[in-house]
């Protein structure tokens, strides 16, 4: 499996590629396609890579009793759960309209297929990748059928154990599909002590050949930035136009200015992550030239002397001399010139005895 792959046309994830930011609009559009389009444009302007929705074919996701269940929540858009969900669900034609609008705006578009029929529809819609919500992560037949379509997959891991995630990994690996896993805790909003960012490190150890990411439902930006610092290559955060709106996801979502700030900070942080190679940087040369230390003579040393440690010390010196980290290489070498106290010791001034 590749540690990096193309998640959407022209966009790689993993490796040293920039973090791929998914703005989860979900059903925070309140069932209004005008609001949905407005949110697509807003997340594009905020710098997100992808606008994501949630697609269900309700008769395939819920049985009749579940759809008929009374729903008296403050977040309800209908008397029954079925009425509520139908109010928030866009038609196939509306999804095509949203996808076309996203293309016009210039942002990738996809949705979580919340059941097999929805997944089949999204495949026909030609989304760049499948997003598997936490509720279907342990649905291994669903994963297999999705993987057989050959599209890249992003799999959340809320409500799952590590043993289950190993099964998910093996299930998808057999199908030879490109995929990544997101650490996720399915609580809305999410308290810091329930986030468990250290699982990102465990995922990297258990699944070293795939990209790892983070799907967050917490308030604010700090935890998500921590995930990026720990190596998350995909970030998913919910977006809302107003956290006070009716709906269970709004409170756990970012408002537009927060999303823009978060993405700006992610890109700033990525600059700081930099290289895995530790070496003196060009920007450090001025400081090194001014204050970098060298080996100097701790006393007068005649020409032809075999050097011992007590003859040498380290100071800021002009001219620059032997690097202090190599001082012990000088012990036992013979001087080719006489040194006065405080003289810099340079490589050409000594030879093997």
How do you describe this structure in short?
The chain has an eight-stranded parallel β-sheet with strand order 5-4-3-10-9-8-7-6. Strands 1-2 form a two-stranded antiparallel sheet. A two-stranded antiparallel sheet has the order 11-12. The protein has helices spanning 33-46, 58-61, 64-68, 81-88, 92-105, 116-125, 140-147, 162-174, 198-206, 222-229, 256-273, 285-291; strands spanning 4-8, 11-14, 20-26, 50-55, 108-113, 130-132, 153-156, 179-184, 212-216, 234-238, 293-297, 312-316, 333-335, 350-352.
Q: What are the salient characteristics of this protein?
A:
353 residues, alpha/beta, eight-stranded parallel beta sheet, 12 helices, 14 strands
Written account of the structure:
Helix content is 33%, strand content 19%. It contains twelve helices and 14 strands. The strands form four sheets. The protein has an eight-stranded parallel beta sheet with strand order 5-4-3-10-9-8-7-6.
């Amino acid at each position: 499996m590749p540690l990096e792959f193309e998640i959407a046309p022209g966009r790689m994830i993993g490796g040293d590629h920039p973090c791929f930011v998914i703005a989860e609009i979900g059903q925070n559009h309140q069932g209004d396609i005008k609001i949905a389009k407005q949110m697509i444009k807003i997340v594009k302007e905020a710098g997100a890579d992808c606008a994501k929705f949630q697609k269900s074919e309700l008769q395939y996701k819920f049985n009749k009793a579940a759809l008929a269940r009374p729903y008296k929540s403050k977040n309800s858009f209908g008397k029954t759960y079925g009425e509520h969900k139908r109010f928030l669900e866009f038609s196939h034609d509306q999804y095509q309209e949203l996808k076309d609008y996203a293309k016009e705006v210039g942002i990738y578009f996809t949705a979580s297929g919340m059941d097999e029929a929805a997944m089949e529809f999204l495949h026909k819609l030609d989304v760049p990748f499948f997003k598997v919500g936490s509720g279907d992560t342990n649905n291994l037949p669903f994963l297999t059928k999705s993987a057989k379509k050959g599209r890249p997959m992003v799999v959340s891991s809320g409500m799952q154990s590590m043993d289950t995630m190993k099964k998910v990994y093996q299930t998808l690996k057999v199908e030879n599909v490109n995929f990544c896993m997101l650490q996720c805790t399915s609580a809305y909003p999410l308290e810091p002590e329930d986030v468990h960012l250290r699982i990102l490190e465990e995922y990297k150890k258990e699944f070293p050949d795939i990209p790892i990411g983070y799907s967050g439902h917490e308030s604010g930006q700090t935890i998500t930035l921590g995930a990026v610092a720990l190596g998350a290559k995909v970030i998913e955060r919910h977006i809302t136009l107003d956290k006070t709106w009716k709906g269970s996801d709004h409170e756990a979502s970012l408002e537009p200015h927060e999303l823009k700030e978060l993405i700006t900070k992610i890109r700033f942080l990525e600059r700081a992550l930099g290289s895995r190679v530790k070496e003196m940087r060009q920007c450090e040369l001025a400081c090194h030239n001014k204050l970098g230390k060298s080996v100097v003579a701790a006393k007068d040393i005649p020409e032809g002397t075999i050097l011992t440690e007590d003859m040498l010390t380290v100071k800021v010196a002009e001219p620059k001399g032997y690097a202090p980290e190599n001082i012990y290489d000088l012990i036992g070498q013979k001087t080719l010139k006489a040194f006065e106290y405080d003289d810099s010791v340079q490589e050409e001034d000594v030879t093997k005895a």
